[in-house]
């Protein structure tokens, strides 16, 4: 099965926990503007290292940081090796 990361849920999670972006950024040593970029979608996905840092600080699984879209086989693009 193939999936694609959809909308980032970080803003929803922080809001539900009543954690301000600036305070959370300080906790994980990341700038609030970088966090806002993920939340707003200006940066579509975060690196695995960033996702793990954020998930660990929030005590959640990495998968919970995004909405996930299933990609049916008919829409998948196969990559071929260059010869």
Task: Provide structural commentary.
With 83 residues, the chain is α+β, with helices and mostly antiparallel strands. Helices cover 42% and strands 16% of the residues. A two-stranded antiparallel ribbon has the order 1-2. It is elongated.
Could you give a quick summary of the protein structure above?
This protein has helices at residues 10-16, 21-28, 32-40, 48-58; strands at 2-8, 66-71.
Let me know the largest β-sheet: 2 strands, antiparallel
Order of helices and strands: EHHHHE
Strand content bin = 15-25%
Query: Gap between N and C termini, in Å?
Result: 27 Å
For the largest sheet, list the strands in their spatial order: 1-2
Shape: elongated
Low-confidence stretches: none
Number of strands: 2
Share of helix, binned:
40-55%
């Amino acid at each position: 099965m193939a999936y694609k990361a959809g909308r980032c849920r970080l803003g929803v999670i922080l809001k539900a926990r009543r954690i301000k972006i600036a305070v959370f950024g300080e906790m994980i040593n990341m700038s609030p503007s970088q966090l806002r970029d993920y939340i707003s979608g200006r940066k579509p996905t975060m690196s695995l290292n960033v996702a793990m840092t954020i998930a660990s600080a929030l005590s959640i699984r990495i998968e919970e940081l995004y909405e996930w879209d299933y990609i049916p086989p008919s829409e998948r693009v196969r990559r071929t090796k260059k010869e």
